[in-house]
Amino acid sequence: MNAGGEELAAAAAKRRDSEPLAEAPTEEVRRAQEERLMRTWQTPGGWRYWSSANNSDVGLWYTAMAFFFFLFAGVLALLMRIQLAVPDNDFLSAELYNQVFTVHGSVMMFLFALPLFEAIAVLLLPQMLGARDLPFPRLSAFGFWCFLLGGVFLCGSIFFDAAPHGGWFMYPPLTSRYQPDIGADIWLLGFSFIEVAAIAAAVEMIVGTLKCRPPGMRINLIPLYAWYVLVAAAMILFAFPPLIVGSMLLEIERAFGWQFFDPEGGGDPLLWQHLFWLFGHPEVYIVFLPSVALIAMIVPTFARTPVVGYSWVVLSAVGTGFLSFGLWVHHMFTTGLPGISLGLFSAASQAVAIPTGVQIFCLIATLAAGRVTRSVPMLFALGSLMIFVLGGLTGVMVAMVPFDFQAHDTFFVVAHLHYVMVGGVIFPMLAGFYYFFPLCNGRQLSARLGKIAFWLTFIGFNVTFFPMHLTGLRGMPRRVFTYPANAGFDALNFVSTVGAFIMATGVAVIVWDVFRPKGKQGYSPRNPWGAGTLEWLQEMPGKPWGIRSVPEIDSRYPLWDQPNLLRDVDEGRFYLPDAQEELRETLVTSVIDAVPQQCLRLPGSSFIPMLAALTTGGFFIFGTYHLWWLALASLVLAIGVIWYWLWTGTAIIPETEEKDVGLGLKLPIYVSGVAAIGWWAMFITMLADLTAFVSLVFGYFFFWTIHDDFPPDPSPGPGVFWPTVAAAMLLGAWVLTMLARHWNRRDRPVAFYFGLAIAAALEVAGSGALIAGPWVTGLDPTTDVYPATVWLLVLWTVCHVAVGLIMQLYCVARRMAGRMTARHNADIINTTLYWHFTALTVAMTVAVIAGFPLVD
Amino acid sequence: MSQTSEKHQSLWLLTASPLLWAMHFLLSYITASVWCAKFVGPGGSLTGVRVAIAVYTTLALVGIGIVGRCGYRRHSHGSAALPHDADTPEDRHRFLGFATLLLSTLSAVAVLYAAFVVLFFRMCD
Questions:
Q1: pTM of the predicted model over 0.90
Q2: Can you list the alpha helix ranges (DSSP code H) found in A474-597?
Q3: Among A1, A303, A356, B121, which has the minimal tally of Cβ within 10 Å of its Cβ?
Q4: ipTM associated with this complex
Q5: Nearest-CA neighbor of A700 among A839, A771, A793?
Q6: Eight-class DSSP state of A552
Q7: Which residues contact A203 (CB under 8 A, 6 or more apart)?
Q8: Per-window interface: A 204-233 vs B, CB < 8 A
Q9: Comparing C-alpha atoms, which of A238, A234, A48, A73 is closest to residue A151?
Q10: Which of B25, B88, B98 sits opposite A14 (nearest CB)?
Q11: Closest-CA distance of chain A to residue B58, Å
Q12: Which of A714, A716, A715, A718 is nearest to A726 (CA)?
C-alpha cells in the first residue's frame, strides 16, 4: 500500500473510533446516573466492609498488609544486625538467629515483594486501563484472604519458637532429616497456600491486561506497566508450579517417609535445588519487573515526555521474562554439576544483562530527552536506578563461575542480592508509594518528609550493604550467628549495623508520613503530577466506581494528547456512564485492538471469598499439624464453599442478551468459549497446572539420569496392563465430555446427561485401574524413590480426574437447575477445556510409568 | 488493510523467537547432562554433544531468522517511522513487527552465547 493509500486507510480506521457525545447529558440525568452508580458500587459499611470485593478496597488491604509484613521482616533484620554488630555477641542464640534469618528472607520474598506486586496491580491496573474493576474481583479478595491467613500463620510461628529455620530456600536434607520439628512444615504448607493465591492473582492480571482494556487501547498503546504486569504474571504461571511441586514432595517426605530427597532411599537433595531455583530465579524478575514498571510510569511524567524506546522496553520486559528461566543453575554452581552445564547457565546469566540494561538505558534516555522536574518519586526512582545498576554489576560478577566459586555463600552474595532487591524492588515501590499515594485517599504525602526519608534510606542502605561486599570477600560466610574477634570482620560489621539503623529511621519517617493526621492539608488536586496516563483521571478522593465513563483511547498518554478527555469522562460522555440495572459492569475488549466485545457483569461484595480462604487455609494449616481428618473435613468444606461461590456468582443467565453500553453500541452480556474471560482463566490456570505436572515428570527423568537402575530392571511395577486399561477408560471419559458439550449445544439433554453419566463411571473405574497398577505389583512408596515417584504420578492424575468428575457433576446440576442451556453453555465449555489438559496428564502419566520402563 | 486487521495478528509471534531460544537452551542442557550422566561418564569426551549443539544452533538461528524477517517486514510495512504509537491498525502492526524483530535479535544473541560454551568445553567436567 502506498503512503497516500495508507493515510486514507488510517483515516478510515480513525473514523471508526467512537467520538464522545457532542452534548453532555443534562445535570439531572448525570446526577441520577451517579446516584445509581454509587448505589451499585458502594462499599458496605460496618463489619460488612470486610466483604468488599472492589479492587480499590482489596488493593488497599493488600498493600497495607504487605507493608506490615515488610516492617515485621525489617525488625527481624535489625535484630540480626544487632547480633552481628560486635564479635562473639550473645544477643540472639544460634537457634533463634536461624529462625530470624529464615523468616526475614521468606517474609520479604513471599509476604512482601510478591504480594506487593499483586497488591499494586489490583489497586492500579483497572485505573490504568480505564476499567471499573478487574475481571474477577472476588478472586482478588480470595487471594488477599489467603495471603493474610498464610502470612499471619508463618509470622506468628516465630513467637512460639516454632518458626522455620532452614534458610529461605529450605535445602534438604537440613530441612528434612535434621529438622523434624514443625518449622519446615509451616514453611512448606503455609507458602504453598500463598502460592496458590499468587497463581490466582496471575490469572486475574493476564485476563485483566488482555481483555479489560478501554476501547481503542490497541496493544501498541497500552501503558508500559501493563506490559510488565502481563510478563510477570505469565512468569508466575511457569515459576510457581515447580516450587509447589517441590514443597509437596518435601512435605510428603517429611510426613510419610517417601524419600525423594534422601539419598538413603535413592532420593537426591539436588532435585529440591533444581525445583526451588526453577522458581527462585524467575521470582527475582517477577518482583523486579513490576517494580521497574512503576519507574517506567513515573519517569515520563516528571520528564514531561513520552518514554523513549517504548518497543525496546517491551523487548526488555518480554526478553527478561524468557531469559530468566535459563538462569536457575547459577545458584547451584558449587554443587558439582558438569562444567558444560555451568557454562550454559553462565552464558544465559550474562545474556539476561542485555535486556535488563536496555530498559535502564531507555529510562535514562527519557530523562535526558525531557525537562526533569524535581520530586520525591523521582528521587526514589533515581536512587533505585543507581542501587540496581550496582547490584546488576555484581550480578554479572557472580554469574562467572570461577568468581562464584569464591564468593558463594559469603556476605558478598548477601550484598549483591540486597542491592538487586532493594534497588530493583523496594526503592521503586517507595517511588510508586509517593507517586500513587493520592490515588488511595486523595491526599499527598509530604515532600519535605519524603526527601528526609529518601536520604536516610539511601545513605543507610549503602552504609549497610556496601561494606558487606568486603566482608564477603574477606571470607565471612552468610548465615553465621556470630564471628570471632580480629578475623577482619569487626569494623565492617559494625558499620553495617549503624547503616541498618539509619535506613530504619528513614523507613520510620515514611511510616509517620503515611499515618500522620492529614485532615488540615486538604485533598490533592486532580492529576497532581501532570501525568499522561489514565489512572490520573481519578477524582480526589476517588469514587468507588473507579472511572465515571469508559473512554475511547487514541494515544499512549491520553491525558496529554486527547483534548477534553477529563471533561468527557466526568460528564459521562463515553461508554457505561450509567448502571440502569444497578449491577456492576465493565467492558471486555479484544486482545490486539481492544474492540468492545462484551458488557461484563461483575460480582459485588460477599463474604464467600473470605470463607473460601478460611476453609482452604484450614486444609493447609491442619495438614501442618498432621491433623489429617480435620484437614480433610476442611477440604470438603472448601469444595462446598467454592461450589456455592460458582453456583451463585458465575455464568449467570442475564435478563436480556444485549445491552446498550452508550454511544450507540450494543454488546452481549453472556459470552462463552474463546471470547469469554472464564475460558481464558481456565486455560491460564491449566497452563500452570500442566507446568506443575511437567515438574513431576522432570523429577522422574532426573532420577533416571542420576541412577543406573531407575526404573529398576526388571521393572517391579506398575506393569503395562492396568495403566493401559486406565488410559483407555479415562481418555474415553474425555471423548464423552467433548460429546456432552456437543449434545448440550444441540439441546439434546438426554444424550448430555447419559454421556456424562458414562463418563463418570469410566472415571471411577479408570482411576481404580490406574491405582491398581502400582497396588497389585506391590510397589511400596516408603522403600525407595522409584515406587514413590510412580505413586505420586498416579495420585496426581487421580486427583485431577476427581476434580474433573466434580466439574461434570456441577454441569449436570446446572443444566437440571436451568442455569445452563444450549446457548448459555460456559460451564460445560470450560469443563471440557479442563478435560483436554487432564487427558494430556493421563496420557503422559501412562506413557511414563508404563511405557518408559519398556524402552529404557 | 486485511493484512493488518486484528484477525491476522497475534501476540504469539512475539514469543516465537524466545521460545526457540528456550528450546535450544533446554535441548543443549539436557543433551549434555544425559550424555555425561548416562553415556560417557564425568571424564568423557563431549564430541557428540558438540555436534548436536552445532545442529541445534543452526536450526534455532534459522528459525529465529525467519521470525525476525517476518517481524522486519511488518515493521517496515508502509512508510511510517518509529515510534509506532499512532492509533491505527497499521502502526499497531508495525509495532508488533518491530517488537518481534527486537526479540528475535536478543534470542539470536542468547543462542550464540549458549553455543559459544561448547567452543571452550571438550570434556564433561
A1: yes
A2: 490-515, 558-561, 565-570
A3: A1
A4: 0.92
A5: A793
A6: -
A7: A136, A139, A233, A681, A684, A685
A8: 216, 218-221
A9: A73
A10: B88
A11: 17
A12: A718
